[in-house]
User: What shape does this take?
Amino acid sequence: MSEWEKFLPKPTEDTEPYWDYCRKQELRMQKCKGCGLVRFPPSVICPRCWSLGHEWVKLSGRGKVWSWVIFHQAFYPGYADDVPYNTAIIELEEGPRLHANVIGCRNEEIYIEMPVEVAFEKVDDEVTLPKFRPVLS
Amino acid sequence: MANLKDQYAIVGAGLTKFGKIFDKSPVGFTLEGIKLAVEDAGLSRDDIDGLLVAMPAMMGEEHAWAARIGALLELPLTFSYTMDMGGATPVAMVQTAALAIAAGLCKTVVCAYGHSENPQGAAFAIPNLEFTMPYGDIGATALQAHIARRHMHEFGTRSEQLGQVAVAFRHNACLNPDAQMFSKGPITLADHQQSRWVVEPLRLLDCCVQTCGGGAVVVTSAERAQDLKHPPVLISGMGQSHSAEIIEPWPGKTGHRGGIPAGRMCFEMAGMKPKDMDVIQIYDGFTILVITSLENYGFCPIGEGGPFAEDGKLKVGGALPCCTAGGLLSEGHLMGMGHVVEGVRQLRRQCKERQVKDAEICFVTGYGGAPHTYPVTLCYSTLILRRP
Ligand SMILES: [Zn+2]
Assistant: This one.
């Protein structure tokens, strides 16, 4: 991999805590103080009840593959060396879904409902990305 | 909204030359499209007091985009907005034009679009992609690939069924000499199955073409439309819905179903049902999007879009001719303006070899938004057009 001639997160004021926790290898998301919804992406307001109150709760890091696709074409030069690579939408135990890569297995081994857990990948001193690997049973 | 039904009409429609042609800027294509549509209506500059223009992709901070287009044509405007819902914009501009005329803000509105680069190509410059781009999940193709994966998982939809959509629309494009893929000739299901993966499970022939070009339509009151050059094409129904999907699903929604209210609203306003449609123009950035749209808008039950589209009924000559000019897949990616213009031309019966016999009612959809941002945000727009 031509590591990180790729797009890196450019956090905003609203999303910075998420990435700060990732740097500490913690997957945290906002839990609404009004209705209890665990939400993603980070936002100043709960999309469901409009409460402004929230806390950053630590998640189990476990979930399942909700969808997965294989890029056979690089839409940006920084990803060219990775082709074919997977991207997946992971549904976390707590409810939210997020994009990630499934690592630690071959693309052909991925399937919907595959149990996975978070695996943090440090890119540089600023950025650590949550990715997911199969849960070994 | 019932009081809008059949009160407003599309009276002019035009598309520039389009395809992989790079001789004009977005402004240039937009201006030429407006000229063609206004001339087609038999109107002139002084008749146009409203202007809506679709915001070109990736334009950055460009205040008063629509008004500047107006200035370059010396239009005497009392109403002008730049609109941006991605591929849902052309249909939504027609709706907004009718609303503005109904409100008395203006009498005749041009709705215009122009583009001179691939709208999918520059996604990485958009801010707020921090939750997708680092993983390489880039662009509209990726979102539709995820939707296709889920559809295959939940309903057993097969790549061959997606392929039949591509085959049908290419068939239609081969009846349209202006279509970008006209000269390439028809494709078979085997061609589809042998085309390379782009984002698996989507192949190259599941994806729309890339197009430079422009176009516009003119909207005015049904009353005013009586005296103009062509028989008017009445706006009988319209609808919109806007949703967050996939990542932050609407409560109770798990799939790609945000378009359902836009369809329901449109059919209710028109007092019609999907089976009443003689011809349909479904926004078709990707084959899977046609399948999910046919389901969302009630042409077949949820989950049955694959088998429904498989038997060739979407071809000109089939039971439900769809994207009769070839669509985004094979006519050209005019962001949905081509779909509106084709709807008008079918109802005026100007379509020669691809004309749907006795076409009186046409359903047109737009679809767009921000597929690569978080949450995945989608806009759906619908029209029912009718020949009086
Ligand atoms: Zn809440």
About this structure: Residues A 32, 34-35, 37, 46, 48-49, 51 surround zinc ion (CB under 6 Å).
